[in-house]
Amino acid sequence: MTLPPEAGAEAEAAIPEAVLAGAGPTEGRSLGQIAWMRLKRDKVALAGGAFLIFLILVAIFAPLIVKYLGDPPNEFHQELIDTAGGTLAPIGRFGGMSWDHLMGIEPVNGRDIFSRIVYGSRISLLIAFLATLLSVLIGTTLGIISGFVGGWTDTFTSRLMDVFLAFPLLVLAIALAGVFPDQAFGLQGNQLRIALLIFIIGFFNWPYIGRIIRGQTLSLREREFVESAKSIGARRGYILRTEMLPNLMAPILVYSTLLIPTNILFEAALSFLGVGIRPPTPSWGGMLSDAVVYYTQPHFMFWPGMAIFATVLAFNLFGDGLRDAIDPRANR
Amino acid sequence: MNHSRSWRARGLAAVGVSAALLLAACGGGGGASSQQGSGSQGAQAAFNAASTSVVTPSDQKGGTLKFANPGDWDTLDPGETYYAWSWNFARNYGRSLMMFKAAPGKEGNQLVPDLAEGPGQASDGAKTWTYKLRQGVKFEDGTEVTSADVKYAVLRSTDKQTFPNGPAYWEAILDLPNGYKGPYKSPNANTDSAIETPDKYTIVFHSKQPFAAFDYLAQQPDTMPVPKDKDTGAKYRNSVVSSGPYKFADLQPGKSFNLVRNDQWDPATDPNRKALPDRMEVSLNVNPDDVDNRILSGDLDVDVSAVGVQPAAQSRVLQDPNLKANADNPLGTRLNYTSIIPTVPPLDKIECRKAVMYAMDQTGYQAAYGGPFAGGDLATTILPPNIPGYQAFDLFPNGQDHKGDLDAAKKSLEACGQPNGFETNIGYRAERPKEKATAEAFQQALGRVGIKLTLKPYPQGDYFAQYCGLPPYVVKNKLGLCLNSWGADWPDGFGFLSQIVDSRVIRETGGSSNMSVRIPEVDQMLDKALTELNTDKRNQMWGEIDKRVMEEAVIYPGVYSKTLLLRSKNATNIMVTDAFGEYDYLGMGAQK
Amino acid sequence: MFAYIVRRLLWAVVLLIVLSMVTFGIFYLIPRLGGATPETLATRYVGRAATAETVHLTAERLGFLDPVPVQYWNWLKGIFVGADYDFGAGVEHCPAPCFGYSFITHQPVWPELLDRAPVTISLVIGASIIWLVAGVTIGVISALRRGTLFDRSAMGIALAGVSLPIFFTGLIALAFFSYRLGITSPGGHYVPFSENPAQWAYSLLLPWITLAFLFSAQYARLTRAGMLETMTEDYIRTARAKGLSERRVIVKHALRGALTPVLTIFGLDVGLLLGGAVLTEKTFSLNGLGKYALDGILNNDLPKILGVTLVAGFFVIMANLFVDLLYGVIDPRVRLQ
Fold first, then answer.
1. Of B479 and C287, which is predicted with more confidence?
2. Which is nearest to B342 in space by CA: B554, B558, B557?
3. Chains near C (3 or more Cβ pairs under 8 Å)
4. Is the dihedral of CA B290, B291, B295, B300 positive or negative?
5. Which of residues 119-178 of C touch A (CB under 8 A)?
6. In chain B, % of residues over pLDDT 70
7. Which of A170, A128, A203 lies closest to A269 in space, CA to CA?
């Protein structure tokens, strides 16, 4: 599955230019305010956003939620499994769903799926957010410098981005994650894994933001306000900070929001293939991977899959809405 | 309205997709559509009948047996292969000096002479063994098999640079000249100190130490003769010359091969083989669920790797009485256990180790491995019940329900000075879901008495060499428990115990399966058993070694491995041989 | 124009070399972080009964005791002129292109790659045709009927489609269509085209549809966006004013403008997918290049991984090159860069 081109393709097809306030100068509304008004009218995007807030809260308050609504995620409940008949399947319909176990239990060990999903949200969100942050930091920095300075720096950075885009990223990411030892750089165990995943996902994805920001910078560079700042004698650093960056915030924000779901899918894919988070820490991709051999008990694969789907959908809805709000011409 | 995307429809569409997925996914797990009826040919045998009797007996020749392997052979070269099922199968294309009888149940454990006329003759205090070969046995190209071919086969298997994967008994036991590197690298060395061939049909082995159970060594496939002029070293695996009733045809490495009749095989020289099918077709690297489905539908006959059915098929088979009656549940020659490592404090104190023995929930161990059918039986000894020498005893009873005796555990903890428990790490192979599940079970069960475990997964390729099997690493990383599993190289005490309870196989540089047993008394008992030529007395001694090791509480014997195997509709003479704990691949025939 | 092509080709070669170095580096240099030595690397390729000596001999035989650059150079040389391998009783010549012998199976890698490539190619070509046709058609219709029920539900489903991971959709599809209903082939049952075209199509049907569902969602959205953009352009109005039929306007003018970015992405997507449909192949148990790579990685079988990575990289780079050349033809400004 091609993850990066998806985000990149959408971007290329409808490059939003920083839209200056449509209303006349006397109205004095900032870009942010106008965008917010447009966003408020888009109910679907708001729904997506609301779900995201809900999800973030769930992730933050996971221990509390699990304490009241479920059982500890690693606790076994063998009495709920059909051991006598040998099938090791949960007893009861829908995979053992009950008021005690809202989403049923896992085969073989009877762990509560609900609490594992809740804890899994922490992993998914943490890695996706931090990886996106890393991508954005690298991509924005290199993109701006490349676009603004031009010349050899630009050529070099563009070639670098080409190199990244030309690699079979998933294979390399798997290879890197699979080969990395269990302790290095003073970290070990799951801490190291999480850091590693953030690094790999963030590092392999920076060209997508980089390319967009570079394109934006290139077009902004030619604008009048930059020209006029230059003609006053403003230094490069000043121009970058006060003229370019604020106008770039919009696309940065939009594409970050659109990059996060890609990263969630990336992490899920790595965990699914077995090179992501180590057990027994629950992760959505890992749960799907466990569920593969139990395809006769589909509830097991249903919940983690739906969790991934709902989260990614919410980000996409919200991101689309955000992009519409900032530049309504795109993708109407 | 300006917004072209009405929120209502978009939202509905997204919800619609979710609903579709929900519908597809739910409906309970059970709904097993028994696509195959109960239709089996001939008499409908009962569940697990093949473990004790022959199902669908027949002497009819002809037909094709179709095998599939969810993976691949380690190698088809008889000098290097090291899987039990491969040894089982190899008897079709090679004849070793001795072999396991093709008979069901315990009878399958008997050694009968194959290439040799009779069992080995011991002399010089069981240090010299003489075998006389049958006359008139031919390779597939018509040349006669002589003792020189057997000697060559054994010597080439000692070349560990060309054949790094095979068993290593010969190099350890035979009295080879110093620095001998095998026939390719030391072609002119005089190896008569190890193996002599006084005439075309006699072969004499000299071992460094007495070895009373030599016939077991002689049944290894690396005694199957290899013609020197046709040997291509590490490439021989693609062009094995057969001395058995079948020879290779259409070998496509990694994909498939066929065995067709070897017209040079003379049944008069071979009282052990019936050679019923005309042909055997073997497919490699087949998806394991696919294997199960095709056996059920009659498209395939046997899963040659005998790994057992996948969880999907397991559900179906166990819930449908018709399918279940057509399945067998043989006991393997494998113990799935956990090493309790006494070099890691506080497990250096026997009472702390005993606490682990009492506290563990053994039913959790069993469930992690697949339950009572597909996982195994609860184990209380190191030797599984089908190994000669097994004695039944239970030194650490864990309650009627086998979920652990928490009171005894707590008492032991107090006795070792850790009344509130302690912390340690548990290692396992990351790629093995069963081991992962077992480690998690340990974590839960031992947590009940305050023993806190941290899970440490390691890559299986390096597990023994770098992690749990490397003594300094274990101590440094506080790996008090390490998941382990051992299948006998052959079903006798030596074949089962030597690699896991002899302290002298432990290497400080790593690599041994023995992670925890360092009992000098046991080493002596092992040596003594090898000098005992009386088989029954020797077997008794193995049982005593088992008990002595268990007294030290350095091994938690989890389950005696069992597998759930499906019977073919087409095959005849389906029986489980105790020698391998699998279907016997030598005696099977085919109806069409 | 010629100079442009040559420059891009040279760059492609450079990329491939860099790719191979990176892959080599990953497998030799990263484990050193964890303290691996040539011996410990060799332990993966020996069996249960390995002694320290066996391990050392294996390390020697597999070339681990040579310095890393030497190993890399030997491997690179092998691709162009072939290599000789010592198998104990004889020396085997591995003809160019020689990607080495698998550490585990002792089989040459190149023939195995050739064997698996058709599976991946079948999977990708089949799915790509489906998704291109379906995606573009739906996108065009959606754009033309903007705001109608069709448009809104199509885009809704498309949004769901791009939010689903392939391994989830694939698993559900398998559970439902193959296992529950039995109408499609269960995983792992690939039949080569040359053997039986009907069976070949049947075995790939579910993977095609699942993969295509994912991508057509994306392409529908893309096409729709592109169409909407072009439809508002001035030249469309001119075309209409000239009296051309609506169909002509759409197909000949609007679509062409809208499709250019779509086709670009298509080329890149196909290239990337050819190089590593790892997730799809794992989910449906197809023995293609992706699964080969995965097996290689999980077993630390470097020759396999190098082989696949290079083939994958080759496809990706070729696809990029093709798209760049296409742009060079369409947009002369690019050539001057």
1. B479
2. B554
3. A, B
4. positive
5. 146, 159-160, 162-168, 171-172, 174-175
6. 93
7. A170
Side-chain-side CA neighbours of A186 within 13 Å: the count stands at: 0
Distance (Å, whole) CA B344 – CA C279:
41
Cα–Cα distance, C71 to C306 (Å, whole number): 13
| Residue B2 in contact with partner chain C when CB distance is under 8 A | no
Instruction: Give CA–CA dist A29/A244, Å, rounded.
Output: 19
Residue A165, token pair as written in the block? 């885009």
pLDDT band at B37 (very low <50, low <70, confident <90, very high): very low
Note which residues in 61-120 of chain A have CB less than 8 A from chain C: none
Q: Which residues of A touch B374 (CB under 8 A)?
A: 86
How far is Cα C77 from Cα C75, in angstroms, rounded to an integer? 5
Contact B436 A305 (CB under 8 A): no
Nearest CB among A108, A278, A297 relative to B29 is that of A297
Residues 6+ apart with CB under 8 A from B6: C147, C152
Pick from C28, C168, C273 the residue to mutate for testing the A interface (most A CBs within 10 Å): C168
Q: Is A270 on the interface with C (CB under 8 A)?
A: no
Closest CA of chain C from A242, distance in Å = 30
**pLDDT surpasses 50 at A111:** yes
Which of the residue ranges B157-171, B383-397, C244-258 would you say has the lowest mean pLDDT?
A: C244-258
Say if the ipTM goes beyond 0.85. Answer: no
Whole-angstrom distance, CA of residue B175 vs CA of residue B168: 14
- The answer on pLDDT for A8 being more than 60 is no
On the question of a cis peptide bond just before residue B225, with omega within 30 degrees of 0, the verdict is no
Compute the distance between CA of residue B79 and CA of residue B446 in angstroms, rounded to an integer: 44
* Number of CB pairs, chain B paired with chain C, less than 8 A apart: 162
Chain C interface, best mutation among B4, B236, B284, by max C CB count within 10 A: B4
Query: How does DSSP classify residue B109?
Result: G
Say what the alpha-carbon torsion angle A184, A186, A191, A194 is, to the nearest 10 degrees: -50
For chain B, say whether C298 makes contact (Cβ under 8 Å).
yes
Going from the first residue of chain C to its last (337 residues), give the mean pLDDT of each consecutive group of 10, the final group possibly shorter: 80 85 82 74 72 79 82 86 78 82 83 88 91 91 85 88 88 81 73 82 89 90 83 78 77 74 82 83 86 82 85 83 72 56
Average pLDDT (B45-59) is 89
Q: Residue B223: name the closest of B545, B556, B490 by CA.
A: B490
Name the neighbours of A, counting chains with at least 3 Cβ pairs within 8 A. B, C
The pLDDT confidence band at residue A19, using thresholds 50, 70 and 90, is very low
Q: In this complex, is the C-beta atom of A180 within 8 Å of any C-beta atom belonging to chain C? A: yes
Is A330 close to C225, i.e. CB distance below 8 A?
A: yes
Which residue, A142, A151, A129, A155, is CA-closest to A266? A129
Residue among C52, C155, C300 whose CB faces B461 most closely: C300
